Amino acid sequence: MKQHKKGLALWLTAILLLLAGALLTGSPGRAEGVQEAMRDAVLHNVNQISLFGWKTVNPGMISAFTVTAVLLLAAACLRIFAIPRFQMVPGKLQLLLEETVGLFDRMARTNSPHRFGFLGAYIFSAGAYIFVGTLFELLGLQAVTTHGTPVTLPAPLSDVNAAIALGTLSYLVILSGGVTANGAKGVGKTLKEFSLPISMSFRLFGALLSGLLVTELVYYFVHLSFVLPVVVGVMFTMLHALIQTYVLTMLTALYYGEVSEPSHS
Fold first, then answer.
1. Inside any domain, residue 3
2. pLDDT, average across residues 160-173
3. In angstroms, rounded to a whole number, what is the distance separating the alpha carbons of residues 206 and 199?
């Protein structure tokens, strides 16, 4: 009981110290208004980065290249060093990998029992990219813009171009399942869902961008601007990483199974 009281007292002391620090220091000045910051988070008209001196690109593209390189390197290391050492009695890493792969494999088998081999591999890859890419912004990596100011690299899918690319790719995977299973009839089944790539793309973009904008608003309008944004940013990022990974992979598996179901005369 005494230990619990001591722990509670320490937490209250830490909160009071942070509150006192916030009141004494105040909020830092901002070089741009909140409207300009939110507009640039969507349009990327100001904070652009030079790509090896070749052309200027959005920060989201640098994030996408970085996340892709990390995932490919991790996959190569696992394939070379970890998978050959797998045993009948799994260790912690082997158990984690098997459970993760099994989760997406069961999702593919449940929603598309007729064709699930390629589907399982795709939703695993897409899910890993969404999850790791969303958590990437928690690292707070910075780059220098063409104006010489630092900018934090965002999640790749908070860029509308990346979200549209992933949504369109998922739709093409669904279309390939319909064509493989039913030929021209499969194309007709898939084209009936013509709004699917738009809905998947903007669902990803809107969900991830909302977390970024909420954090920006907290930075600008909340006096505890060096404490509360950390909690808000981590909370939104973790929730979006889990929810958006599940939503896109489940929708892809569901529609893939629907269009790849064999037609019966």
1. no
2. 90
3. 10
